[in-house]
Amino acid sequence: MIHFLRLIRPVNLLIIAVTMYSFGGYLDYVYLDESQGEMLIQTFNFFLLVLSTVMIAAAGNIINDYFDVRADRINRPEQTIIMKHIKRRWAIVYHWILNFVAFGIAIHLGLASDTFWYVFIHLLSINLLWIYSMQLKRTLVIGNVVIALLTALVPVLVGIYYQDIFRTVILEEAYPFHLNNYQYFPVYIGLGLGLFAFILNWTREIIKDMEDVEGDKVLKARTIPIVYGLQKARNISIFFILITMTLTVPVVWFWKTGFVVGMALLPLILSAFSAIFSMLILFKPLSPKNIKIADLGIKLTIIFGMILPLFWIFQILN
User: Fold this and answer.
1) Which of 57, 172, 205, 211 could form a disulfide with 144 if both were Cys (CB 3.0 to 4.6 A apart)?
2) How far apart are CA 207 and CA 236, in angstroms?
3) 139 vs 123, more confident
4) Which residues pair with 82 in a beta bridge?
């Protein structure tokens, strides 16, 4: 059992769940009057949405390790699980069971909400994770973009869930900025968070590729560090971090207009510090230790950014 848990990476799955409940909690407080006091994150369907998303991510982790056994024996031999603790055929069985149950949940959610989005996104994610692990991971740029895009879909799914329920709600009095269709506010915020998640996860994928150069060469992968070298890969990572920090300017503008105050700024500040920390580490000599530390810094940046909506609740309560 312990080896199965290590295989599906429970910490990463917990981050996904916390992200979804954090964003959902914020939208609940925004829409509390319209929902007549019922918090949608407490409903069974929202739990099912989180569960299905986590199960697809777990299945993706399994199939990724399934196709990466040879590389993992070189990059991280002490963490290799498939063939060492779990047989390959059982890994495939676990993978398909998780995906089958998750897709069944997506069908239920689609029928309950009268929308095709859950089935479409879940089916897209399942297939892209398989293709990514089997082939795209070893292709230049495309592999990084695919996994970053799938990560970005996590907050978007929550936005779709709330938009389907509150598609006619107007929030003109609640916020100082203006959108053409306030009823799509949950999706807009989900896309905004997804954009940050996309860029930061793309950055982290490049840094992880910098860690895994030797193993990826065995698989004849065409990653950015292998094709262009570690120095250029580092420069690209730093550039993406700078882009992310630049995109925080609109959030600072919201702060000036009273949208984000006090404790609501804490995750943003922590995220900025961890991003700057990673960037400074990347300026140091590219040793395996420094690359690993930079990877951890970007991971913390993502975590702080994803719990940002939870702290926005402080603004609403105050």
Assistant:
1) 205
2) 10
3) 123
4) 86
Q: Say if residue 78 is exposed, middle or buried (CB neighbours under 10 Å; 0-12, 13-18, 19+).
A: exposed
d(CA 297, CA 290): 10
Reported as half-sphere exposure (CB side, CA atoms, 13 A), residue 64 has a value of 18
CA distance 234 to 104: 42
The answer to whether the CB of 139 falls within 8 A of the CB of 171 is: no
Helix (H) or strand (E) holding 213: helix 213-218
How many Cβ atoms sit within 10 Å of the Cβ of residue 40? 19
* Tokens 């402080």, located at residue: 314
- So where are the chain's domains? 2-317
Residue 179 makes CB contacts below 8 A (sequence gap 6+) with 185, 188
- What are the backbone dihedrals phi and psi of residue 84, each rounded to the nearest 5 degrees, phi first? -95, -40
What is the rounded CA–CA span in Å between residue 253 and residue 256?
A: 5
Cα separation, 120 vs 38, in Å, equals 28
Element (H, E) at 152: helix 142-165
For residues 117 and 167, is the Cβ–Cβ distance under 8 A? no
Q: Is the pTM of this model over 0.85?
A: no
Contact 233, 224 (CB under 8 A): yes
